[in-house]
Automatic annotation (TrEMBL), chain A:
It is a multi-pass membrane protein. It holds the Pfam family BPD_transp_1. PANTHER family: ABC TRANSPORTER PERMEASE PROTEIN (PTHR43163:SF2), DIPEPTIDE TRANSPORT SYSTEM PERMEASE PROTEIN DPPB-RELATED (PTHR43163). This is Peptide ABC transporter permease. It is found in: Cell membrane. Gene3D superfamilies: MetI-like (1.10.3720.10). Belongs to the binding-protein-dependent transport system permease family. Residues 94-307 form the ABC transmembrane type-1 domain.
Automatic annotation (TrEMBL), chain B:
GO terms for cellular component: ATP-binding cassette (ABC) transporter complex; outer membrane-bounded periplasmic space. It is found in: Periplasm. Residues 1-26 form the signal peptide. It holds the Pfam family SBP_bac_5. Keywords: Signal, Transport. One of its GO terms (molecular function) is peptide transmembrane transporter activity. InterPro entries: Peptide/Ni-bd, SBP_5, SBP_5_dom. This is ABC transporter substrate-binding protein. GO terms for biological process: peptide transport. CDD domains: PBP2_NikA_DppA_OppA_like_2.
């Protein structure tokens, strides 16, 4: 087991190194940050001064070498734009994104599973048809347009909910979060719904299919024969069996929620990392782009590692297969 | 009963009165801004985003008005003892937000700090590059000695933000961002900055100048155009900037909103690359690059200018959000030439000019443009392609790219005919003529943004004469003369000045400005 973890950690180091090379050269190839950072009337002396202070006057290989040396000591570079360590800028913004992705995930579960169960049990009924049509919409509406519509309806016409920013935040257990205040929650509702609609649809469909596959199985028939109430059959026997694939998919989707938060964060001016990365790409703030991608890669590696460890604990076959 | 009724009426009247009084004194305003600052230190970056943020809390020696003209502000008067020596007096009644008085020590400290801010991505270095020595005379007067005669000195140092020596010495960038060192002399004090979200300010009670109308100000940073408009419509912000031209008709017709347009100093132009013996994308019928480079011939450049119907571009592509132009700066700036007006398109004359230049059948051309830099940049390129095709050129393609990729390639000279924009931030044409049209020379440091490498000795000489002229009026005349030479030569093909818009709810007034700045003290209660 220990050998397995150590091997995976070494692999992770290689992945991180390769990613850093690819991202660094990729970002380097896009364009010249000086073109964007400097005002149009900047003189050549100013240009040279900035190039020197940001290290942009060095060849790519030297810039990468410097980056690597710093990275090994835990410093992923200083943002050109903000002149702050890029990792601390990212960590400042990350809670807002995680909070949004988490809310969307919770919505997907508490709305998606009951609706999926309902439509799966009433197959072919008007309720089923309505829910399925709704889920097609949830899948196919462009996130961007959908966000604008939510703003138009709930902020502009009805005036119920705010459409921009994170609102008042408070601290719960030392973490700054919107959940702490009513104003914060009001600000969270629209972006969270926008981000979750596609996931709700996904969960509905997974649940519905699961229900349809499970209902005809023998153990359900036996449960019926034992005289259990249909309520108990659904909530205990059916749900337990269909939950496994749903949880697996949701776990994977959490990563994509963070990635897709970019669009939602832009429309709702949510101060998360998605917006930061888009802005940084636009102004070619290389250190922030590179650091962000490394942070995300680390996150995914960690999730995968945890999943693999859990699997090998739960399933001896995987352990024995791994050489 | 009657008494009750009377009391009731009185109560309603009182309520009405108090509510009107409340509106009139509406203490707070929320401003929706498209861009955001990268730091609070006013000397950290010279970009518009940072400067318009600093303008709320910090002040400069000279004040820039809505037409980019500069007036005495913290500096009250100045005179030249000789071409190198300046004596400058500052206001005596100015205090910093921490209560300490503003003195010459702060001025000297600020000017010296200007080019020493570590890792600044856009330093103010050039503003103080001509300064040789600074000498204090007394608390409100100092002497400045320049390295060479510099008539534009006050315009340059007049743009440097004044910081408090006491609060800034040993302060880090973080100290500014947290507000600890954000001690200025301006009408507003720093309260809180939340990056990507908001900046909160409150009025400074002991401000020496005109008090602003609003006590508390919150800037909200809303980058997306549609979301910003929606925020105004929903009432969550009171005023927004950078209104998308396509939203303007709708906002104007809504009745309870007001739109504030201004013809900005941002020129959109077509550059014709004269750098090499061939121009990328300029080919003959067989697809081979034409040598010598046709753009080196002024007749070809003029012919292209004559093919373009600028009014049509502005009306159809931009919904009217532009003002056709035939020169570098807008009419309110010094150095503007009254009689240089855009001519209507004339394809026949263009053809004749092309024939004269040796291209009776025209030639092949590709047009390049950014597609996310300013409203309509990609569409303008498409429309230009059609106009040039009508004028007798064979348009082989229109290529647009995101600005972060586009700008670097343009600087490297990878485009033949390409669209670019240039904003104005100074009171006259000098800065833009220098960076855009002066002969490029790395050694001399001239022509930094002369990407097409236009070079004309007559123009350079005329511009240098203007730069060295101390008499303000003569200097403007000389700038006009230089502009005339360059435009006679069609150094660039000017297209239009962008119109930009702010929009506010009823009851809010705003002074739109050429420099595209959104500053809290310009937002007032409508009278």
């Amino acid at each position: 087991m220990t050998a397995f973890v150590i091997r995976r950690l070494l692999q992770a180091m290689v992945v991180l190194f390769v990613t850093s090379v690819i991202v660094f050269t990729g970002v380097y190839a896009i364009g010249d940050p000086l073109e964007i950072l400097l005002p149009a009337d900047a003189t050549m002396a100013e240009r040279a001064q900035v190039a020197r202070s940001l290290g942009l006057d060095q060849p790519l290989i030297v810039q990468y070498g410097r980056f690597l040396m710093n990275a090994l000591s835990g410093n992923l570079g200083t943002s050109f734009v903000y002149n702050r360590p890029s990792i601390s800028i990212i960590l400042d913004r990350l809670p807002a994104t995680l909070e949004l992705a988490f809310s969307a995930l919770v919505l997907a579960i508490i709305i998606g599973i009951p609706l999926g169960l309902w439509s799966g049990l009433r197959r072919g009924s008007a309720v089923d048809e309505t829910i399925m049509t709704g889920s097609i919409l949830g899948f196919s509406l462009p996130n961007f347009w959908q966000g604008m519509m939510l703003i138009m309806i709930f902020s502009v016409y009805l005036g119920w909910l705010p459409s921009t920013g994170r609102g008042q935040t408070g601290t719960i257990l030392g973490i700054e979060t919107s959940f702490a205040t009513w104003d914060g929650i009001r600000h969270l509702i629209l972006p969270a719904i926008n981000l979750s609609l596609a996931k709700i649809s996904l969960v509905i469909r997974l649940t519905r299919t699961g229900v349809q596959e499970t209902m005809p199985l023998d153990f359900i028939k036996f449960a019926r024969a034992r005289g259990l109430s249909s309520r108990r059959i659904v909530t205990v026997h059916v749900l337990k069996n269909i939950l496994i694939p749903i949880i697996t998919v949701i776990g994977v989707e959490f990563g994509s929620l963070i990635a897709f938060a970019v669009v939602t964060e832009t429309i709702f001016s949510w101060p998360g990392v998605g917006k930061l990365i888009i802005d940084s790409i636009k102004v070619l703030d290389r250190p922030v782009v590179v650091a962000y991608i490394l942070v995300v890669v680390t996150m995914f590696i960690t999730i995968n590692l945890i999943v693999d460890i859990l699997y090998s604990i739960l399933d001896p076959r995987i352990r024995s297969k791994a050489p | 009963m009657t008494i009750m009724k009377k009391w009731g009426t009185a109560a309603i009247a009182a309520a009405l009165l108090s509510s009107t009084a409340f509106t009139a004194m509406a203490a707070d305003v929320v401003i929706g801004r498209a861009n955001e600052p990268s730091a609070i230190d006013p000397q950290f970056s010279r970009t518009g985003n940072n400067q318009m943020t600093a303008d709320n809390m910090f002040e400069t020696l000279l004040r820039t008005d809505e037409n980019l003209q500069m007036h005495p502000h913290l500096a009250t008067e100045w005179q030249n003892l000789d071409p190198l020596t300046w004596e400058i007096s500052i206001r005596k009644d100015v205090t910093f937000h921490d209560g300490s008085p503003f003195t010459v020590d702060d001025v000297i400290y600020s000017l010296e700090r200007t080019d020493e801010v570590p890792n600044s991505p856009a330093p103010f270095t050039d503003m103080v590059s001509s300064v040789d020595k600074l000498e204090k005379i007394d608390d409100h007067k100092f002497r400045l000695i320049t390295k060479a005669p510099n008539p534009a000195l006050m315009e340059q140092i007049g743009r440097v933000f004044m910081v408090s020596k006491k609060a800034t010495e040993n302060a880090t960038l973080e100290d500014f961002n947290s507000g600890k060192a954000a001690i200025g002399t301006g009408p507003y004090k720093f309260v809180e900055w939340r990056p990507a979200e908001s900046l909160k300010l409150t009025a400074y009670d002991n401000y020496w100048g005109k008090k602003p109308d609003f006590e508390n100000v919150e800037f909200r940073f809303i980058a997306n155009d549609a979301a910003r408009t929606a925020a105004l419509l929903s009432g969550s912000v009171d005023i927004i900037d950078s209104v998308s031209p396509s939203d303007v008709p709708r906002l104007e017709s809504s009745g309870n909103l007001k739109v504030f347009p201004v013809e900005s100093g941002r020129l959109v132009y077509l550059a014709l690359n004269m750098r090499d013996d061939t121009a990328p994308g300029v080919v003959d019928a067989s697809g081979k690059l034409i040598e010598p480079n046709p753009f080196r011939d002024a007749k070809v450049r003029k012919a292209i200018s004559k093919m373009i119907d600028r009014q049509l571009l502005v009306d159809r592509v931009l919904n009217g959000a532009g003002v056709p132009s035939a020169q570098i700066v807008p009419s309110v700036l010094g150095g503007y030439v009254e009689d240089l007006q855009p001519e209507p398109a004339n394809p026949a004359e263009a053809k004749a000019l092309l024939a004269e230049a040796g291209f009776p059948e025209g030639f092949g051309i590709t047009i390049y443009s950014s597609n996310d830099r300013f409203p309509g940049d990609g569409d303008i390129a498409q429309a230009l392609g059609q106009l040039l095709a009508r004028g007798g050129l064979k348009v082989n393609g229109v290529q647009t790219q995101p600005y972060n990729v586009y700008s670097a390639a343009a600087t490297k000279g990878e485009y033949g005919a390409y669209i670019f924009s240039l904003g104005s931030s100074t009171p006259n044409a000098e800065a833009n003529l220098r960076s855009l049209l002066q002969t490029y020379s790395k050694e001399a440091g001239t022509g930094g943004f002369n990407r097409m490498r236009y070079s004309n000795a007559d123009f350079d000489a005329a511009l240098n004469e203007a730069i060295e002229e101390f008499d303000q009026e003569k200097r403007m005349e000389k700038l006009q003369a230089a502009t005339r030479i360059a435009m006679e030569d069609q150094a660039i093909v000017p297209l239009y000045f962008q119109k930009i818009y702010w929009a506010a709810r009823e009851g809010i007034d705003f002074t739109p400005n050429l420099s595209e700045r959104t500053v809290a003290s310009d937002v007032r209660i409508a009278k």
